[in-house]
Amino acid sequence: MGAVRNLRKLSRAALLRPSPRGALPDAIEHVAQAHRAHHPGADLDMLRRAYLLAESSHRGQMRKSGEPYITHPLAVTLILAQLGAEQTTLTASLLHDTVEDTDVTLAQVRAEFGDEVCHLVDGVTKLEKVDYGAAAEPETFRKMLVATGSDVRVMSIKLADRLHNMRTLGVMRPEKQVRIAKVTSDVLIPLAERLGVQALKRELEDLVFAILLPEEHARTQELIRAHTAQPDPLTQVAARVREVLREAAIDAQVLIRPRHLVSLHRLRKKRGELGPCDFGRLMILVAEDADCYAALGELHTCFVPVMSEFKDFIAVPKFNLYQSLHTAFADQDGRVAEVLVRTRQMHQVAEAGVITLGDPHPATPADAEAEAAAGDGERVDPTRPGWLSRLLEWQSRTADPDTFWSELRDELAEDREITVYCAEPGTGASSGALPLPAGASCVDAAYALHGEAAHRCIGARVNGRLTSLATALRDADTVQLFLAPTSGTAAYAPSPEWLDHARTPAARISIRKWLAAHPPVAAADAVTVPTETPAGPVPESVPEPVTEATAPAAHGATAPPGDSVSIVTPHPHAPVRLARCCTPVPPDAVTGFPVRGGAVTVHRDSCQAVVRMAAAGRSSVSVRWRKLQAGCRVTLRAEAFGRPRLLADLTETIASEGAAVVSADVEPPCEQRVRHTYTLHLPDATGLPALMRAMRKVPGVYDVSRAAHRVPMGSTG
Fold it and tell me: In degrees rounded to 5, what are phi and psi of residue 684?
């Protein structure tokens, strides 16, 4: 409140006593000092001119509190200057209400201060209720977010503007205070968190807390008063930490950082009661990244670390630019202290977030070249994170302001973000990182990656394993998404159940739009798509895989009829059977087992039957291929996502590779997946790898393997 009173005095002084021509007005001296603390030697002429225009334009206007209106843009600009904002942001901040509340036009702002300042002022200018009615607030936020997409400084000004309005909200009617506090809680505070502006977020949270939960707010204040009446035990802990770091020759500043009201309230709800060391945390500020880890090592060596509290946000920064080491330890007296370790630069970014990054526009020819190399005419802007790109994408497809408003609140309620890595189906090659909100599913990944083409999504692999589209993704997961071919996709469409698993507005909006345009067909009018049958003499079904005892037999060096492969066994006159459970072909590594009747059954070494028989103590015999002959019989299993013409395409591919279908079995679909089992005669065993590769390339097929044992559909095994 002291800063506000000073601004009032300075503003009134400026109104009554004009400054000498070209001199800096007294009213913005505080702003100038705060700005020069971060930007020594800055030219303040543009700030001077912006203040003079703002003061003359707002002259005679008063706030509801009775103060001259100019105190508001001055306070907003001071907030931003203290956080290190550069001159363009401060200039626009001084002018941010001129176009909305005075006769100043955007054209005048552009002519006097340039395109960037004009863009920032336009971005925070509210839309008129006369023109938009009840949609004015959501459409104003939409306009502001779109402007933020091309220059994040728009949101910096809006956050500072809301903070000063919240500081002075007491003059409003209680019901209006609650409405503004609710919007601040639902939209502005999450935006401050996502942009990393923790200094603004903390104060906004406490101000909202006082309005929406006044009793809890008062109780938390009382706890703080009771705590401050006693000696703070963290003072002694901090002194010991300084001593430890000094002895280790680590140049560090050790501070006690009090928790703000909302932080204490949350901690009390989590733990029930607060301990004497819970009212603050130690903050250790060092010069370099390496010093952070050196300080951490000393703490964990000299104290008892609480490893469950350790988090490394330096190696893996949060999506809002935040970096620090978090840990906790117990000292020799059993006092547990939480600790933040960061560099001074990290601290500046943690407090001011995107504000500290300054101007995102290229300032030099080299920067302009980098921008051009980025393609699509997009400016290289490190302050445009993935969540903002997602938001801008889905809002463009949401014309209805109520839908936009509700989806925006839902989107911002997700306060964590993950990054998954997308792999190309069939190759597994990475196609890049994809940022998503925590809790996102494969459905969300599909729509984020493919847009409305995700309507054709028929399955996914996560970290190499087939999984359902409902699967929730975790940070660093690798995702393969399978889409049905673009032709003949009438049978593939989003399921209403997808909405239960969609966490992103982009996915929900696209699914709802499709479902609204394609109402469900009544049961009496439903069309049954006939199952295709392959060309040629393929039986309708094939029995379950049979055991080796019933497989066709060959005597000595003669293979079963139709197959011309040779097996050498220790018993040259014994019948030889090639096991149909694994259909070995040259040059597979093979093992033989004597069976009843004196025959020898030959299995692939990898066959599960070999494992079972060896475990049961069955004796094996050494067998080998005599020579690689031309023909062989093999059973292949194709795992695929069901689609029309799949069977025809597979049999056509098999035929094009020169193989003949002896028998085929198509199991009923399960969760849009289908399994085809083919027993094939190959004219040349060496062609088997090429055949399997060709089958894997058939659209919808995600795996082809040698049939070794039967796995029920729906299993991930």
Answer: -145, 120
Query: 284 forms bridges with which residues in the sheet?
Result: 254, 341
Distance CA 251, CA 246 (A): 7
Strand order through the sheet with 465-467: 430-437, 417-423, 478-483, 457-462, 465-467
- Burial per residue of 159-190, b for 16 or more beta-carbon CB atoms within 10 angstroms, e otherwise: bbbbbbbbbbbeebeeeebeebbebbbbbbbb
Query: 387 and 115 in contact (C-beta within 8 Å)?
Result: no
- Asked if 455 contacts 514 with a C-beta cutoff of 8 angstroms, the reply is yes
State pLDDT tens for residues 68-107: 999 999 999 999 999 999 999 999 999 999 999 999 999 9
Catalytic residues: 100-101
Buried b (16+ CB within 10 A) or exposed e, 310-321: eeebbeeebbbb
Q: What is the pTM of this model?
A: 0.67
b/e code 336-363 from CB counts within 10 Å (16+ = b): bbbbbbbbeebbbbbbbbbbbbbbbbbe
For 286, the token pair is 């060092």
pLDDT one-digit tens code per residue, 375-433: 333 333 444 566 787 788 888 878 888 888 888 888 888 767 888 888 876 544 455 77
Q: What residues contact residue 608 under an 8 Å CB cut-off, 6+ apart?
A: 708, 709
Residues 6+ apart with CB under 8 A from 654: 661, 678, 680, 691, 695
Residue 432 φ/ψ, nearest 5 degrees: 120, 170
Nearest-angstrom CA–CA distance, 252 and 255: 10
Quick count: other Cβ atoms within 10 Å of Cβ 333?
Answer: 9
Residues linked to residue 603 through DSSP beta bridges, in sequence order: 591
